[in-house]
Amino acid sequence: METFDLIVIGGGPGGYVSAIAAAQSGLKVACIDKRKNLGGTCLNIGCIPSKRLLYSSELYENVKDEIHHHGIEVNVPNFNLSKMMEGKEEAVKKLTNGVQFLFKKNKIHHIVGLASLEKEKIVKVNEIKYQANNIIIASGSYPSTLKNIKIDEGKIVSSTGALNFEKVPKKLAVIGAGYIGLELGSVWRRLGSEVTVIEYAETIVPSMDLDIANAFHNELKKQGMNFVLSSEVTKAEIKRDKVHLQVKSIKDKKNNDLIFDNALLAVGRMPKTEGLGLEKAGIKTTDKGHVEVNHLYQTSIDGIYAIGDVIEGPMLAHKASMEGQVVVDIITGKNGQVNYDAIPSVVYTNPEVAWVGKTQQDLDKYKVNYNVGKFQFSSNSRSKVSGNTTGMIKVYSHSKSDKILGAHILGNHAGEMIGEFVVAIEMGATAEDIALICHAHPTLSESIKEAASLASYGHTIHS
Length: 463
What we know:
By secondary structure, the chain is α/β, with parallel strands linked by helices. Strands 1, 2, 3, 4, 5, 6 and 17 form a 7-stranded mixed β-sheet that branches. A 5-stranded parallel β-sheet has the order 8-15-9-10-11. A 5-stranded antiparallel β-sheet has the order 18-19-22-21-20, sandwiched between helices. The longest helix is centred in the first third of the chain and has 25 residues, at 81-105. It has helices spanning 13-24, 40-45, 47-65, 81-105, 159-162, 179-190, 210-222, 278-281, 317-331, 360-365, 381-386, 414-426, 431-435, 446-457; strands spanning 2-9, 29-33, 109-112, 115-118, 122-125, 128-137, 141-143, 156-157, 171-175, 194-198, 226-228, 231-239, 242-249, 255-260, 262-265, 269-271, 304-306, 345-347, 352-357, 370-376, 392-398, 404-411. The mean pLDDT is 97. It folds into 3 domains: 2-142 and 270-338, FAD/NAD(P)-binding domain (3-Layer(bba) Sandwich), CATH 3.50.50.60; 156-267, FAD/NAD(P)-binding domain (3-Layer(bba) Sandwich); 342-457, Enolase-like, domain 1 (2-Layer Sandwich), CATH 3.30.390.
C-alpha cells in the first residue's frame, strides 16, 4: 500500500491549492478527483465558463447598445453562439491544463476516480488502497434541488445545463435570485432571452447589504430582467416542449401558471459528501450534511481535515483556497488562520456587486454603533468619462474606533476595487486611514477615498 504525507480528496480550488502548497512545503502528496481535468466545479463547469460567457455577452451588448454613444458606427451586430461556446471551452482547457502542469511541476500524484475513506486514514480509489499521515477532504458541492422540480439538463437545467444551451431560450425562468441565477440570467438576457427571476425571499441576493441589493435590483429591472419575489415554485411540468411552472405568492397565497421555454434551477448548493465513506471512517457531519470541524479544520478523526464547500460557511472558491493553504500551514507546524471578516464576495453581472465584512443588517442585528459613508459613481470623473455612472460605494466604520467594519460596491469593476477594503479590514485600518491615502486621478478608486471620508469625517470634496 502506497503511503503519502498528505492525501487531498478533491481537485477544485480548495483541493488543488492544498496539494500544491503541501508539495511546496516538502510533503509527499496525492490528490484524488473523479474528473480527469483538475480544477473542480469552478474551473470546469462553474466560475470560469460562466465568467467567459458573461464577458462575451457583455461585449455583444456593449457593441449593440452602447458603442454608438462614443461616436463609433457599426452595422447591426450579430453573435455566433457556437463560437461563444468554443471560446468558453478553450478558456476552461487552458486553465485546467495549467493546473495539471503545476501538479507535474510540484511532483503531485494525481489519481482519477472516486475516493472512499476507511478507518486508519486509508483511502480506496478504483479498488486500490492508499494511506496517509494526513487527509484533507475538499470534495466541493453540487447544485441544490427542490422535491417538486426535476432537472433533466434539457428543459429544466442546473447551472451546468445553463452553460451549454445550444440555442438562446425565448423565455427563460430563473428559480433563485442568488449569484448563479443572476449571472446566468444576465448572460441569456443579453443574448435575447426574456428572463424572469423567481425568488422565495423579499429581496434578491439575501446575503447582500439591503440598500445595495435594492439598488442592484432596480438596475437589473432597467435592463429588462423580470422579477417575481416572495414567491415559490410549487410545481414544474414539461408539456408540449414547454416548461409550465406553478408559482405561489408567499403573501397572498395566490397561484400563477407561467410558461417558459427553459427553466434554470439555481437555489444554492449542497456539500458533496455522498460516497466518501464518512460514517465508516467515523467522521461526524451536521444535520445539513456539512463535515463537522473545529477551529483548526480538524474533523472528529485526528489527522483528517475538511475545507471549502463541505464545511459550513459561504461557498466561495477563494475561501476554499485560503482554507487549504491554512490547513497545510497547520499540518506543517505553522500558525494558520482565516479572517472570515475579510473574505470578499462578488456578483459578476453588469454592474458588478462586491462586498466584504458586515452588512447593515448584521450591524443593526448586533446593535453595533457605526458611521456610514456612501458615495455615488455619478459624482466620479472617470465614471462620467466612460458613461458608466451607475452605482455607489458604501463604507461602514465603528463610531468610536473608526475601524472599517464593512464595505459594499455596486458598479463597474467592483470585484477589482473591493480588494482595497479587504486589505484595510485585514490590516485593521480605519476609514480615516483610507481617506488620507492619495488615489490616482481620474480613477474609479477615488470613490473609495470619498466614501471613507464621508464615514470618518462626515463630508468629502466631491459630494
